[in-house]
């Protein structure tokens, strides 16, 4: 392995990327993301679309603000963190910087995984984004979704692929816990996470079969790119994948969280999943024999009801109350959470979600009270920085 792909994982580090909507004070997404990034770039906090297209260096260990597919979005990334308190502080800091940049051009940011109000998404300028629009047509033109991606360090690609093969059965539970996109462009979708349904339309998205080893993983990525269908390897949208740039596993199934605390809980769960899977690999524990077709159904179920209905239990493949499935996840991760000192914090965070509901449930409560989808956006903008 090249040196950049090796890592010391005595304490696994964590980084979080969040995509945010840029909205006006009235509660409508506005195409001011590039203008906000101009402000951030002058402050040394991010990249303009032009700088990003040229391969800027904002991404890395120190945090960043960068463009996303649509002008109504921007993306933040934390610095590399070794404990969850750092993740919390980093997310609050970078959400604040993103909001300050947006306010400088007359807007705000809102941690919403889809737009509650109807809006025409506008593409961010750039050659790569242009190729995506040209290649995928309406699929790319409609895509205005915001996810949360959690990176966790691994020793090398062999350990990373062993982790990917073992965490895949638990990823739908993370979708359910993070659900924050019930409305889609002016209508109630009927889903808790409609972002996950929209995202599944990309041809390379979703659950994959076990890769077996690093060579098998890289061979599959090469084969997908060789089809000439996806734009590049960055468009390999597996539910979890190896980072192209860093020695990390990247878990991509979550909606962006309204509350920083929920994003921190997600980061703790993902790190514990990686730790647990790596220990299983070293102990010779077999990869769970669950087909990708079953996992896609489990992911659909998680996106449909979030934590308010049954989920597909990863151990039985049968429906079970969400609280029971989440409890099984915490039991599975118990030793890893104990080893990092995160057990109580993560358990409390999960309990809070189950008690008060996901972001999707909060959005619907605001809408029932006000009858106004713009009020949902305004409430989300307030909670983004709370």
UniProtKB/TrEMBL annotation:
Gene Ontology biological-process annotations? modified amino acid biosynthetic process
Family named by the database record? Belongs to the glutamate--cysteine ligase type 2 family. YbdK subfamily.
Any one GO MF term held by the record is:
glutamate-cysteine ligase activity
Task: Identify the enzyme class.
Answer: ligase
User: What HAMAP family does this protein's entry cite?
Assistant: Glu_cys_ligase_2 (MF_01609)
UniProt function note:
ATP-dependent carboxylate-amine ligase which exhibits weak glutamate--cysteine ligase activity.
- Designated name of the protein: Putative glutamate--cysteine ligase 2
Q: Species name for this entry?
A: Geodermatophilus saharensis
Keywords tagged on the record: ATP-binding, Ligase, Nucleotide-binding
Decide whether keyword Transport is in the record: no
Q: From start to end residue, where is composition biased (Basic and acidic residues)?
A: 40-55
* Lineage of the species this protein comes from: Bacteria, Bacillati, Actinomycetota, Actinomycetes, Geodermatophilales
* Region: Disordered, residue numbers: 25-62
UniProt-listed Enzyme Commission number(s): 6.3.2.2
Q: Which reaction does it catalyse?
A: L-cysteine + L-glutamate + ATP = gamma-L-glutamyl-L-cysteine + ADP + phosphate + H(+)
Q: Name one Pfam family in it.
A: GCS2
């Amino acid at each position: 392995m090249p040196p950049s792909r090796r890592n010391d994982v005595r304490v696994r580090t964590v980084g979080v990327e969040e995509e945010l909507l840029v909205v006006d004070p009235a509660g409508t997404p506005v195409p001011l993301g590039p203008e906000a990034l101009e402000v951030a770039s002058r402050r040394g906090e991010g990249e303009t679309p032009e700088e990003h297209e040229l391969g800027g260096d904002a991404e890395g260990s120190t945090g960043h603000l960068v463009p996303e597919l649509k002008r109504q979005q921007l993306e933040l990334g934390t610095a590399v963190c070794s404990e969850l308190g750092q993740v919390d502080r980093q997310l609050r800091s970078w959400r604040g910087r993103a909001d300050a940049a947006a306010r400088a051009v007359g807007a705000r940011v809102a941690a919403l995984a889809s737009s509650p109000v109807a809006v025409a998404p506008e593409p961010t300028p750039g050659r790569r984004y242009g190729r995506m629009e040209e290649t995928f047509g309406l699929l790319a033109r409609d895509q205005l979704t915001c996810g949360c991606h959690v990176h966790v360090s691994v020793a090398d690609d062999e350990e990373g692929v062993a982790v990917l093969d073992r965490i895949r059965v638990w990823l739908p539970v993370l979708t359910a816990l993070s659900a924050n996109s019930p409305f889609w462009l002016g209508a109630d979708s009927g889903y808790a996470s409609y972002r996950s349904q929209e995202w599944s339309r990309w041809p390379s998205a979703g659950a994959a079969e076990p890769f077996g080893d690093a060579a098998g993983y890289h061979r599959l990525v090469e084969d997908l790119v060789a089809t000439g269908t996806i734009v590049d390897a960055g468009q390999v949208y597996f539910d979890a994948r190896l980072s192209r740039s860093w020695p990390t596993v990247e878990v991509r199934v979550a909606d962006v969280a309204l509350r920083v605390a929920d994003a921190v809980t997600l980061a703790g769960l993902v790190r514990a999943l990686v730790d647990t899977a790596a220990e299983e690999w070293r102990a010779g524990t077999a990869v769970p024999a669950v087909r990708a077709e079953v996992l896609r159904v489990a992911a659909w179920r998680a996106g449909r009801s979030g934590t308010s209905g049954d989920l597909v239990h990863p151990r039985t493949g049968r429906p079970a109350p969400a609280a029971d499935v989440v409890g099984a996840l915490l039991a599975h991760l118990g030793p890893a959470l104990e080893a990092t000192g995160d057990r109580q914090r993560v358990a409390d965070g999960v309990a809070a979600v189950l008690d008060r509901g996901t972001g999707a449930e909060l959005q619907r409560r605001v809408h029932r009270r006000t009858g106004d989808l713009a009020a949902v956006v305004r409430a989300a903008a307030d909670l983004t920085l709370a």
